[in-house]
Task: structure prediction
Amino acid sequence: MSIDLRHQQYLDVMGIQRWVRRDLIVDDDETDSHDASVVNDAGNIPLLDWEALQAQVAGCTACDLHRTRTRTVFGVGNKQAEWLVIGEAPGAEEDRQGEPFVGRAGQLLNAMLLAIGLRREQVYIANILKCRPPNNRDPSPEEVACCEPYLKRQVALLKPKIILAVGRIAAQNLLKTDTRIGALRGKRYAYADTGIPVVVTYHPAYLLRSPKEKRKAWQDLLYAQKMLADEKQ
Ligand code: SF4
Result:
């Protein structure tokens, strides 16, 4: 099977037609406690290797989410990956399995990555939060702040060439903004003080609810792919 044909099949899974012109697409927005007595020993986190970091996350009780989680969801993938995909927080299935982006949204993410020639095993996938917020509510600013040192250390260890922020929560927290996701798409940002480029796209769970937006996600992925290629030149 040719690469083009394989990509087209994944695009078909995503419901994407390649010939859609960007100038015809409407830009709609995606519509979508910290227990102060316990700390996550953030001072040590910048020194931890992958194994020690994962162990620290597994035992973390720094915010109240540890009380309701089934297991922590550290992250998964290739530790030499150029691409780091960052989502919001574990959902019910992720909380059960301990892996980010599983279930239907995970399958769609896999299809999206394959559409630009990336297998899931070639990227690293993590979330803003390592524990599931009850009832899939939005993470609180306190929870994000509490968990942020873990993600920062993952980024420092991985040294990705590009970060794909998927969904409003991931994008807004990574970029420290409350700008709507529709306005964040299609631009180059940098992660914290690292200079690592960040590109924003929609969350696959949102795309499952709003399939017409898959075309925009396809454009975002192409944009990120081109940016990475340009960075390498
Ligand atoms: Fe610790 Fe993060 Fe889980 Fe809160 S969400 S308990 S900071 S690992």
In short: The chain has a mean pLDDT of 88.
